[in-house]
């Protein structure tokens, strides 16, 4: 089975820092493609937060700070690719469904490559602009108990956004 990231919400901070927060339990992709043509000095605070530390949920197309590595069925993967392809057509101007689907498949493969970790491993992303390039870094948090993420005490992740804004 293929592993993919799935959104996790340990507290309410995603709803505070993102203009549109992903729902808990959505399959996710890194989603950095959404900022390829962005003028970094023109991003709103919410857009900047999404850029700096947000994975893209593939149902709501909202952002999440944390994702967990989970097993995905072939049906799950097909649903993610199809939803992402439609998103590329609707929101990113993909000229044909074939091109949108190819881009979606590539993004899902990248997401799967990030999940070469035990089930339950938490992933974070941090992004920054470097000239015209977008630099992405991914980090892992591995709970000793795979259910630790589900039972963890609420934590405040808003400081991560502020830290990501510093040079």
Share of helix, binned: 25-40%
Terminal CA distance reads 40 Å
Strand order of the largest sheet: 1-5-6-7
Q: Compute the average pLDDT.
A: 87
- Unreliable spans are 148-167
Q: Name the shape in a single word.
A: globular
CA gyration radius, whole angstroms: 15 Å
**In total, how many beta strands?**
7
Provide the succession of SSEs. Answer: EHEHEEEHHEEHH
**Strand percent estimate:** 15-25%
Q: Major sheet: size, sense and barrel closure?
A: 4 strands, antiparallel
How many structural domains in the coordinates? 1
Describe the structure.
The chain is an alpha+beta fold. The chain has one domain (2-162). The protein contains 6 helices and 7 strands. The protein has helices at residues 13-17, 45-53, 74-92, 97-114, 148-151, 158-165; strands at 2-8, 28-29, 55-57, 63-64, 66-72, 122-130, 133-141. The strands form 2 sheets. It has a 4-stranded antiparallel beta sheet. Strands 2-3-4 form a 3-stranded antiparallel beta sheet. A hairpin with a 5-residue loop joins strand 3 and strand 4 (63-64). The longest helix has 19 residues, at 74-92. The N and C termini lie far apart (40 Å).
């Amino acid at each position: 089975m293929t592993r993919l990231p799935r959104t996790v919400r340990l507290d309410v901070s995603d709803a505070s820092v993102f203009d549109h927060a992903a729902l808990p339990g959505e399959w996710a992709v890194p989603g950095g493609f959404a900022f390829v043509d962005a003028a970094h000095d023109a991003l709103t605070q919410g857009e900047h937060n999404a850029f700096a530390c947000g994975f893209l949920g593939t149902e709501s197309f909202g952002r999440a700070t944390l994702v967990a590595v989970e097993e995905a069925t072939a049906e799950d993967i097909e649903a993610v690719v199809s939803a992402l392809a439609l998103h590329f057509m609707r929101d990113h101007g993909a000229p044909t469904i074939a091109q949108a689907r190819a881009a979606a498949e590539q993004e899902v493969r990248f997401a799967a490559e990030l999940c070469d970790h035990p089930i339950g491993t938490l992933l974070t992303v941090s992004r920054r602009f470097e000239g015209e390039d977008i630099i992405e870094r991914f980090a892992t948090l591995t709970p000793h108990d795979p259910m630790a993420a589900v039972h963890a005490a609420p934590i405040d992740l808003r400081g991560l956004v502020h830290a990501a804004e510093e040079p």
